[in-house]
What we know:
Layout: H1 2-9, H2 14-24, E1 33-34, H3 37-43, E2 46-51, H4 61-71, H5 74-78, E3 81-84, H6 88-100, E4 104-109, H7 114-122, E5 126-130, H8 134-148, E6 151-152, H9 159-165, H10 167-175, E7 181-185, H11 190-202, E8 207-213, H12 218-225, H13 249-256, E9 259-263, H14 265-279, H15 285-295, H16 297-300, E10 310-315, H17 322-331
Parallel strand pairs: 2-10, 3-4, 3-6, 4-5, 7-8, 7-10, 8-9
Antiparallel strand pairs: 1-2
Amino acid sequence: MEMETRSEKYAADISTIREAQARIESFIHRTPVLSSEFLNSIAGRTLLFKCECFQKGGAFKFRGACNAIFSLDDHQAAKGVVTHSSGNHAAALSLAAKLRGIPAYIVIPKNAPKCKVENVMRYGGQVIWSEATMESREDTANQVLQETGAVLVHPYNDRRIISGQGTVALELLEQNQKIDTIIVPISGGGLISGVALAAKSMNPAIRVLAAEPRGANDAAQSKAAGRIITLPETNTVADGLRAFLGDLTWPIVQDFVDDIITVDDKQIIEAMRLCYEILKVAVEPSGAIGLAAVLSDGFRKNPAWKDCNNIGIILSGGNVDLGVLWDSFSKN
Length: 332
């Protein structure tokens, strides 16, 4: 009975996440979990890195996109899908649409990272440019919807997306049953919503912590205020973490995410460097933030987390704009 009421209250639940897993299993990579004795020693606990940077399209976003695309009936699918995204969701949706043989119309702001635009084109998405503002992105997407009759697939505020992203946690907890804490990057909240619903359903005692850039700390402010807070502007190297929570993701974040740890860009870049040097894994800034959070004083010195001993860290993506990366290295 409890799960019935829960599924009405939230945009997804363990059953929709398991359905997503069955639906997308043959299309996605089951990504590996890596660990490092050196990183364990500096963190003072066991860290288990779920490498979604090795997912198709280079990020976890392919899970949700795949679930959304393959949930459509044939009539809906024939008209294609549309989204607005400056990053990994755009590429993921393009790739999933290509696998189903349907068009993907991708509205991209003109300031999007070049490497992510190239991914969309590589996967056959049809790029439609917008101005950098959210208003322009949404207006352009609405125009495309009217012209094509395509189905809108929002980057995170979508039940199908949340359920697909939750499969990360199903896999991770199958791969290591000892995990007592999962640290997840937070932006629009699609990934952490799915992860939190899946993980807490499998183990109600597990902790789910969000990692957020200080220059885009709307989720931390929202959690403190008890309502969605949006910021007039964001300023962070983590280009994948600049979105604000949606009306579907916020209730899940409010009820299931135990805390939000904010870190600055310098800590994020240092964590990226460790991923490159120690794990030998290319991770984008948004993907490295979980490691930055675990190594931060805000986490280490908080007595509430002293018994978080086996921590799953989701390395959410590896689509690095190398030009920006080298520039950021030289500045720091």
